[in-house]
Amino acid sequence: MSAEAMALLEGLQLCKTHGFPHVEIEIDSLTLLKVVRREMKCPWRIWGVVCHIRHLLEDFTSVLHHCYRELNAVADSLAKLASTSRASSSYCATSFPRDIRGLLQLDRVSYPYIRRQWKP
């Protein structure tokens, strides 16, 4: 959830920097969505990030809603990449990592992403 919260914060900061007054946010972490909306207690580890998110949301006309991870595979993969590399990166369409470029291409042609569960 920490990676998801940081990704949301950085996305909001980018929107503010570029002057977007209206944002529609799709979050695949229902827990984070409930925390941001104050429907659930905030874990202390991400308290500062969530407070910053809430403050930034006041600057926008925004819509926040939940979407399933399968519909948000690119964003989910980028959040996982950021959490494992512990670095903030920006990408353009040609510089995404190979596996994420593949997910982008599937998304572009509306090909469904099916999450598989591995069973031993």
Automatic annotation (TrEMBL):
<feature type="domain" description="RNase H type-1">
    <location>
        <begin position="2"/>
        <end position="82"/>
    </location>
</feature>
<dbReference type="InterPro" id="IPR053151">
    <property type="entry name" value="RNase_H-like"/>
</dbReference>
<dbReference type="InterPro" id="IPR002156">
    <property type="entry name" value="RNaseH_domain"/>
</dbReference>
<dbReference type="InterPro" id="IPR012337">
    <property type="entry name" value="RNaseH-like_sf"/>
</dbReference>
<dbReference type="InterPro" id="IPR036397">
    <property type="entry name" value="RNaseH_sf"/>
</dbReference>
<protein>
    <recommendedName>
        <fullName>RNase H type-1 domain-containing protein</fullName>
    </recommendedName>
</protein>
<dbReference type="InterPro" id="IPR044730">
    <property type="entry name" value="RNase_H-like_dom_plant"/>
</dbReference>
<dbReference type="Pfam" id="PF13456">
    <property type="entry name" value="RVT_3"/>
</dbReference>
